[in-house]
Design a protein that fits this description.
Number of strands: 28
Number of helices: 3
Helix content: 10-25%
Structural class: alpha+beta
Strand order of the largest sheet: 1-28-27-26
Largest sheet: 4 strands, antiparallel
Shape: globular
Distance between the termini: 32 Å
Radius of gyration: 31 Å
Strand content: 35-45%
Length: about 425
């Protein structure tokens, strides 16, 4: 029987914020999940039950965004107080302050190597800061309204940003030039993310759509319009084939990018879903909401889905092969005077079994037996039918082999991405 991918399952939920959750991120070691909130605090939640969370206070306004560095040694948070804080994830919660912008800081993101921090602000700019020195590096200016999100590409050579000016912009880090402006949305763009391989960017808008663009060509690759409210947050699974979106309609949607369709719709928050994020290994994802709650979900898809598809393809091919064998057996002509099977036995004796059974008798009587007593011949039409059935079996087995090979290739690439 073919396996089926298991639905995502709610693993844990955390309550402690006094206002809407605005962002969340996972510790790479999976020991903690960190959240930011409009209540002005950053909270570090332990995965182990019975361990109390840490509350980091210091911002003088709503905390609008949060991110963990790739090595797990720093947490960055951006606030309506115009500052960025860099926290050490310890009980003491020590932090350094960067007076980053002249407007609220709505986006913080680390480069993959952890040497740069990217910030986006209501002052319409994106800025980069060197770490650990915290020295200002450069500004990317061009948006005409608040910058809602900004992120480095996987190799840190490109930056993507989104804005309330309804555009997504692609930037060259070395030249500081804007390489492309994606203006396909009809509403403010509140979320933008690079795919893990850097070939695509996904954006979410108040127009309720999620769009996926090709980085090289600048073309629109996919569009999803199933949300009934604005899209606030996006996250790619590490395999690059699945995308999460969180919306004002109170749902989390999981999109299958390979097939270009919706995979799941999840409900749990009592209001808008303000933030979604996959863990680095893709085994979990988190969601934060206007209900001040953080939910951690077990993914239960990704690699499991690929294995299920292989098994399903193999099972279908096996069933087709069995049908073909049955059809071939039905074409074998057996003499009426000698039943091919005893009463109550299965009727699907195939040609090979019939020949094997009659071969000893044919050999014993070959010296003097009349020709009409030899093993019955198979008619030309029956032989042709058997040949067609066997070709069908071979074709189905080829399909299985190709499906397994393709899936092994996909899983191998996924392991490289995650590694």
């Amino acid at each position: 029987m073919a396996a089926s991918p298991v639905d995502p399952a709610l693993e844990r939920s955390f309550r402690g914020h006094k206002d809407a959750v605005t962002g969340l991120t996972f510790n790479p070691s999976m020991k903690h999940v960190v959240s930011s909130s409009a209540d002005g605090n950053v909270m570090v939640w332990n995965f182990k039950p019975k361990l109390r969370p840490y509350r980091f206070s210091g911002h003088k306004g709503a905390v609008l965004t949060v991110a963990f560095s790739g090595n797990g040694r720093l947490i960055a948070s951006g606030s309506a107080d115009l500052t960025v804080r860099l926290w050490h994830p310890t009980v003491e919660g020590r932090s350094a302050v960067i007076k980053a912008h002249t407007g609220a800081v709505r986006s913080v993101s680390f480069s993959r190597d952890g040497k740069l921090l990217l910030t986006g602000s209501d002052d319409k700019t994106v800025k980069a800061w060197a770490l650990p020195s915290q020295r200002f590096q450069f500004t990317l200016a061009g948006h005409m309204n608040w910058v809602r999100g900004a992120e480095f590409g996987p190799d840190s050579c490109l930056v993507v940003s989104c804005s309330d000016d309804k555009t997504v912009r692609l930037w060259d880090v070395e030249t500081r030039a804007c390489l492309h402006v994606y203006d396909d949305h009809f509403g403010e763009v509140h979320a933008v993310r690079f795919s893990p391989d850097g070939r695509c960017v996904a954006s979410g808008s108040t127009d309720g759509t999620v769009k996926v663009f090709d980085v090289r060509s600048g073309g629109l690759v996919q569009q999803y319009a199933n949300h009934t409210g604005g899209v606030n947050s996006l996250s790619f699974h590490p395999n690059g084939q699945t995308l999460l979106s969180g919306s004002n309609d109170g749902t989390i949607k999981v999109w299958d990018l390979k097939e270009g369709q919706q995979f799941y719709t999840l409900r749990g928050h009592s209001g808008a879903v303000t933030s979604v994020e996959f863990s680095q290994d893709g085994e979990y994802f988190g969601s934060g909401g206007a209900d001040a709650q953080i939910m951690v979900w077990k993914t239960n898809f990704g690699h499991d889905l690929g294995a299920a598809l292989v098994e399903e393809t193999a099972a279908e091919a096996e069933a087709a092969a069995v049908d073909a064998v049955a059809a071939a057996a039905a074409l074998v002509e057996v003499p009426a005077e000698e039943p091919a099977v005893s009463a109550g036995a299965p009727l699907a004796m195939n040609y090979a079994e019939a020949v094997a059974k009659e071969a000893p008798e044919a050999a014993a009587g070959a010296a003097g037996a009349p020709a009409e007593q030899a093993a019955p011949a198979i008619s030309a039409s029956a032989a042709k039918g058997i040949e067609g059935a066997l070709q069908q079996i071979v074709g189905q087995l080829d399909l299985v082999a190709k499906a397994v090979a393709n899936m092994e290739d996909r899983l191998g690439k996924n392991e490289q991405d995650i590694g």
